[in-house]
Structure formats: structure tokens, C-alpha cells
Amino acid sequence: MYSKVSRQSVQRVMVRYARTKFAIRQSILINLIKKPGTFGVVSAYTADTPKSRNQKQHGSIIGDIQRMGYRKVYTITGQWQQKKEESLLIHSMKADDVFALGKKHKQDAVIYKGKDGVIGMYYFAGYAEIATTPTAEAAFQLSQGKDLYSKDRNWSFEFGFLWGQHIPWDGRTPFTKKDVERFIANGQLVFE
Description:
It is a single chain. By secondary structure, the chain is of the alpha+beta class. The chain has one domain (7-185). It is built from five helices and eleven strands; from the N terminus they run H-E-H-E-H-E-E-H-E-E-E-E-E-E-E-H. The protein has helices spanning 7-20, 26-34, 51-67, 95-104, 177-185, and strands spanning 21-23, 39-42, 73-80, 83-91, 109-113, 119-123, 127-131, 140-143, 150-152, 155-159, 167-168. It has an eight-stranded mixed sheet with strand order 1-3-4-2-5-6-7-11. A three-stranded antiparallel sheet has the order 8-10-9, with no helix packed on it.
């Protein structure tokens, strides 16, 4: 069950968040993907929930992120199960924190990029999908239009997940580059 959140507390969190909110620019995203370091992508939206309830949940997750001490938070608009949702990309996030937030806010999955560059969509049902190239590098795409999954201002982007190629996941530990190289070598990840 969701904790009760008053309209005033959501508004206070949103005002605080507005002060720390950044637009994610292409150069920032490219640096986050290509350079060492971590990030997490989380949302509090759920598919069959009314918009007003999703907005309350969004305010709640922002408060959680701030209490954890994260300050570089980027808002992105994406889609999940053909529904628009607000997501948050958090710079330098720890894996334990992104997984805890996803579970607390009853998400199907979260995205996490580890220190060695592996970007995974980690499903709490016990598997992951990896955004990778055949050389075990992070796969992503940028577009000037708004045709890809995630959007910001006049451009869009998406991670190149190998959709439907489910890798069993222990629910705690993100995959490393060595893991991805092994998945490619033994045929668990296939490129068409």
C-alpha cells in the first residue's frame, strides 16, 4: 500500500525539486554513457494508475532521492507499456539505491549503468535486458526528432536494449562488462 502523502508535502517537494531540476542535454547524456561513472533511471508512475495519483507518487520518489543525498537529477519523459511517464535519471547513483527505489515504488524494472559502462534494464521478476553492442559497449541512439522512447525538448534518445533476451538476474548485483562479454561469447545475447 502506498503511504499517504498530502498535497502540501508534494508541493513542497516539487518546489525543492524545481530548484535542483536540470534539463538533460545531449552532451550530458553522452558523457554519462561514455565516461566512467554510474547512473540510475527510476520512475514512480504505474501503468493503470490515474494521472493525479502518478503525480503524487512522482513527488514522493523525488523526496526519496533528495533524502538519499542525490542532487544531479534529470527529468526525462518516456514510455512504458505504451503509456507516457515521467522518469528521473540520477547521476552517480548506487545500485542498491536504484534497486531500493524501484521496489519501494512498485516498478516492474529500473535502469542502471554500472561503473564499467554496462547499462541494464533490471526487472524485479528476476531477469535483465542489456543495452550492448557486439563488442560489449553501451548501446544507445540519439535523434533530433521525438521518435525514440525518451524525450527532452527537441531531441530524443533510447538505450539499445536487446529486447526479449532475458538474462537471469539475482535481484541484487548489476552485471559487469565481463558478464556481458561472457553472455555474448556463450550465445545468451544475439545480434541480428
